[in-house]
Structures are given as C-alpha cells and as structure tokens.
Amino acid sequence: MKMTNTQVFWRDVPMRQVFWDSLHRFMPNRLINQPIIFLVGIGMTLSFMTTLYYAALGQAWGYSLSISLTLLVTVWLSNFSIALAKTRGRVVASRLIQKEQKRIAKLWHSQGETTAVPVTQLKRGDKIYVEANDIIPLDGEIVEGMATLNESAVTGESAPVLRQADSETSSVTAGSKVLSDWLIIKVTHPVGTSVLDNLMELVENKPRQKTPNEMALSILLNAVTLVTLVVVLGMIPASQYLGLELSPPILIALLVCLIPTTIGGLLPAIGISGMDRALKNRYLAKSGDAVEMAGSIDILLLDKTGTITTGERRANELFEVGHMPKQTFYQAAYNCSLQDETIEGQSIIELITPLNTDMGEPNVKRVIEFSAETRLSGVDLEDGTRLRKGAVQSVIQWLKSQNKFLSPELEAQVEGLVEKLARKGRTPIAVANQDQLLGIISLKDVIKPDIKLQVARMRILGIQTIMITGDNPLTTATIAADAGVDDFIAEATPEKKLDYILAQQQKGYRVAMVGDGINDAPALAQADLGIVMNTGDAGSRKAGNIVDLESNPAKLPKLVKIGKQLLITRGALTTFSFSSDVAKYFVLLPALFSASLPAIAELNFLQLSSAENIVLSALIANAMIILIMIPVAMHGVRFHAFNTHLLMSKNLFIFGVGGFILPFILIKLIDLALISF
Prior knowledge:
Mean pLDDT: 80
Number of helices: 23
Strand order of the largest sheet: 9-21-20-19-10-17-18
Shape: elongated
Structural class: alpha+beta
Helix content: 40-55%
Low-confidence stretches: 1-10, 198-209
Radius of gyration: 34 Å
Number of strands: 21
C-alpha cells in the first residue's frame, strides 16, 4: 500500500518518546511555560489534595476524585500535543546534526597516500587532500597545488577564484567547492574554531523572535484567564450570601471550564498541522510557528546563487570577432567543447548545434584539460590545428606565446565586447586557434525555472521580493531584472545582510530570508523566517527553521499559502474556543444559582440535574472538545488566496456558531450519562 505523506510524518515520530515527554511536562518548571495549563495543573493538584483530605476525614471523596482525574486528562492532552510537536522538531534537528557529524575528509600522508577520516578527528596541522568536485571541510592553508574554487557558500560570489600555495591567495575556507585540479591543505582551524563555527556561534546567540500573532494571542488568553479567575473568586462570597455551598473541587472545575483551556490545548495541534501540510509540499519545518510566520511575512530576501540561479553558468550568445566567418568560429568552439564534460562545455554544444547541423567530428590527437594555472582547455587535432578556449586574457596570452598578436582594431573590439558583456552581468570566454582569435562566448547565470512567475505571485500575495548577493552591482541588476524581483542588494557580506534585516524589523516589517550558504547563516537566524535550500551546507540548514527539500524557490507561494491557512485555522479555532467558553457561562451559572435565584431558573433551559453533575459534565465536555477539535486543527481550514477576507468572515461565523452550540449538546448528553450511572 502506498504510504501518504501524513503517514510518513507520524511514522517518523517516536511515539514512546512523545508519551514519556508528555509525562515529564507535568514538572512545574516545564508546565509554567504554558500559563493557562499551569493554572489548570495547580487546580488539579489542589483537587487531589482535597480528595485526600476528604478521604482522611471519612467523607465522600469520589466526586472530588472524578474532577481531579478529569483535570489530569486535560493537562495531559495539552502536554501530549506539545510533546508531539517538540519531538518532531528534535527529530529534524538531530538528523541535521548527524549529517554534519558524518562528514569525511581525506587525510594526506607523507607517502602520498590518503585515508578517509571523520572531519571531527582532524587536528590543527593535519594535511588533507581535495580535488575537483570536493567540498573543503575545514579552514586551512594550501601547502601544495593550485586550483579554482567556488566560494559562493562563504562569500556569495559565484565567479570562480584561483587559490595556490606560497602566495597571497593560499588561504581557503570551509564550504568552498573545488572546481578543478587538486590541493593539499594544512588544517588551521579544526572543528569548533573555523569560520563556519564562528558564524554558527553568531547564529546560536540570536534569539528567535515570537510571531506577532503568537504574542497577541498569548496576551489575550492571559488577560481572559485573569478576568475569569477574579470572577470565580468573586463567586465565593456571592455563594455564601445566597446560601449556596460551592466546594473547592467545584470552584476549581468552574475556573478550568471558563478559562480558555480549549485553545490552549489546541494550539500545539494547529502547529503540527502546519508542519504536516508543509511536508506534503516538501518543506521540512522545525516548528509550527515557522509555518505560521510564512503567512505573515512582508519582505522576502532571496539569495542569488543557489536560490534564484542554479549556481551554474551556461552559454547564451556567440560573437565572432574581426572578419572571422561564423562557421569557422562555431566549428572551433564546437571542437573545443566536445571533450569538455562541464556544464559550461555542454551548454556550448547545445547552443551551437541548432545553428549549424553540419558540424564535422574532429580527429582529436590530444585533449587539454582545464587547468587553474593556465585557465585554458582545448584540443590538438590530427591535422595540426590547435584550439584553445578559456578566459579572454589567458587566450590572448597563449596567442602571444605563439608569436601571434591582436591588431589595435581587434583589441579595441574585444575590449568593447568584454565591457558590454560585463555590464549585462555575463562572463566572456574566448576561442582561438594557433593563428588567431576566433570569437567570444557569453556565459550567463541560469535562472531557476518559473522563478519570475512565482515572484509575481508573491507580489499578488502582498510580499516584496529583494534579491541579495555578493556579486557586483552590474551583474546583480541584470539578474534581478531577469528574475523580476522588486529590488536588489549587491556586494552583500554576512554582516550587511544581517544589518538590513535588523533595520527592516525595527521598522515593523516581518522579514523572511531564503538562502543556501554558510554566509547566509546569520541572516537566516535573525530573520523572522529562515528558509534554507536542501542543497545548502549544514551550517545554513541549522540556522534556518524551514528546509526546502526540493531546493526550488519557485514553490515559495505554496509555503506562504500554507502559512496563511494556518493563521486562518488558528483564528477560526480561537473563535470556536471563546464561543464555547461563553456557552459554558450560559450553562453553568444559571444551573448553579437557579435554586437560590428563582428569577434565573428559566435560563436553565437544558433542565440539567444537580449542580455537581453540571460542573462535572462541563469539565468532561471541556476535555472532549479538545479531542474533537484536534482533527480539525490537524487538517486545517480551507484557504483561497483571492478571497481571504470573505473566507475568514465565513469561517469565523461557522466556528463561532459551532463553538457556541456544541457545549450545550455535549453537556446535556454527559449529564444524562452521569444520571444513568
């Protein structure tokens, strides 16, 4: 049988751990974090003490025990829901930590051999070997070799950089990717002291802000609870004046029935439901609050490399230079790229093939692999033709080594073309044979599919999108225009990203950050919502609170809609909770005081039995409502993006009326059951 995402979600949670955690949450130091449930816990304790007191005096204690046990179940239901949500968060965090601890490095020995060892075992001074496609595991100094690196995970700049031994560029940073050649690196900062770890310290020292809705709802619930407490305490002198005896267990039960315990018990279930719906859309949320915040954000910061772009450059235009025939240039570029297995090389083949389907297959004598030292690749053909492709200046230097020089006119044309491409944010590479420069190929950062459409949808949802990157302003402006974002920030360092988020938060905006590199970690931690691509490094995944398992920012509008659905669900169930509390006022007070105040006896239209049965029925109904509404909280209330206000009004009406009617039905049925027993 095919397992649904919901089943997978529940299967991943260790239920035994949830059960024991729910029991451990009865400890006062943990229960106090939930003020309403803490008050219920105090009432439960006093009720049990009263039961023991009655038993010691030989008085009837069964009713007091019934109230005590019902209060125990009410507290446990709330604890169980919270434990379920928190355990899921711990499962996610532990998986990320385990993945980080499993990183392996190649320890270099003096004999030229390597041994695979966990990164955590490396010490300062150890030497490690890295080659093309490896990720540098720790900060260090190059002691041998030369290679090109992609440091976008650290700096945000996607352009390859050259690093070599015995030079000013011999330092390397953990998280950088080796693009070509190999390096032997001496570890200077073992685990716990690297740049990555310093950034993670900054991450962990930044407290996560509570969502505005969570803060507002907490204040409201606490205020209602305080008012209700005053009302119940006021019943003591009132009952004495009227000659009505209200025992301590009855007063405690009244308090629990009338304070908003229902919404207090439902809040964790609502959070879990948001996480479940996010998981169905391949978003792994560490908490329900994170999903809720997705529906409240005002500004969305999108890191360029790995988020808006794929981090890979592809050929998009061809420019022959001088009076060179197009076909000669195309054939040379084609021949140079046939043996090039990189994405750049294959993209050149894909670009040229439709332009000339009569390309001949070259007889290759020797393949020249790309080298960080020469910054060239190419082929030597059987007929003596030598073709080279690479950085423009490197190709020109190679021609000069062959005693071939560019004319002033051609040199001016090439310089103008390179400058024009730079203004467009493109990367130029040149193609030449042993005699002359043939043309220039333009490489462009690849925008992820549908990103422009999804940015427009975010705008419809009222969210401003801003691209943030370490690239230069010219490149950034071009990519920002292609992606359709509202604004951009260029040459951004981790500190600059952090400062921008703080400035926007101080203005009252709620900010979300989308990133995938360790340089994004501080910003991801400070943002109200940190969304991390699954392709990102361990540091950024630890800093964020939602992981996009498909690494596809084009899905972000789905996440926003899930967040808005969570907000509507919370609002609807809060309305239901308060409506049910109002209904319990109409049931309890007339039934309790009708004997002493005949004028209000007509309000006891349910014709309930004794005062003791009424209070116990209401208390049991209070716990049952939590159970009944948990599936609703888990499934969520339907959301339509273009009719939000109408939908909210409709749901508030439905849940308001439903919350008012349901307690009457439950209390009457429970009262009848108690009479029969």
